[in-house]
Amino acid sequence: MKIPTLITTMLASFVVTAALGQEVVNLYSSRHYDTDERLYSEFEKQTGIQINRIEGKADEIIARMQAEGANSPADVLLTVDTSRLERAKNLDLLQSINSNVLENRIPDALQDRDNQWFGFSQRARILFYDRADVTDPPLTYASLADAKYNGKICIRSSTNVYSQTILAAIIEHLGEAAAKAWAASVVKNFARDPQGGDTDQLRGIVSGECDIAMSNTYYFARAIRKDVSGLSEQINKVGWIFPDQDGNGAHMNLSGGGVARNAPNRENAIRFLEYLVSDQAQQYFSAGNDEYPAVPGVALSPSVAQLGFFRADTVDLSLVAKNVPLAQRIYDEIGWE
Question: Are 217 and 300 in contact (CB under 8 A)?
């Protein structure tokens, strides 16, 4: 699909809608979950504001917003991971907004200090292990560097945003030198070269290729809730650890968004973001996509609750995002593919 053609079609649709007097919010989203349909339809039902959507990969959407410049019809950017939210901010694609609803509902660590982006759902990045083969699973992220786990670990590539942010968080907590030493030792413990997504790391435990893996919780919770080929049928083989419960807590990845710099429907955009932190919308994130709500106290879906309670790392994710370029340089230097 050619991007220019897609943009032209999209713009024409938005112009027609505006001409008819329909209240709209133009959403650019890299969230690709069918269950989000309920989020959008409920907002439209409650407000009468129509959501026009463009969906795609995060980097493509950010590039599109850059190319469109001041003429972009985008009102809201939704994407996964603080590194991309921070990149959008640094590229001047977002704007600061004032919203008491967002400020009061979302913890400080899950929002940009300049109010340009806000977190709406979370995934804990934790450790999984083969219950039969691993009698002493790692209890901390630091433990992955222990030589006793040589040849046992499956993990994603260094170019993946989840890999980048976990190292970026370690940099924030321990400094560059300690983070580099950790990463170099983990490489020595790989069971195979990094490959595939988080579900593939979990499948590696089931197949016996790996004894230990790192994954976001929602991939595992999804396999509890419904059939995931190569995982659900033997899911009881897999145990899990929320790391660093006596230290910093489990690392959290964020899905969030902000109002576009040149949003033509700014007030509708803010209203949409405020809707995303309502109890109802927050429950949709958990029930529909096995995520943790960003708003404290919102009920969890059974699949997520089954993983148990834990202490999350409360490090400021804005600071973590700023360490991502350094994290990638470290990975390149130590040979983490």
Answer: no
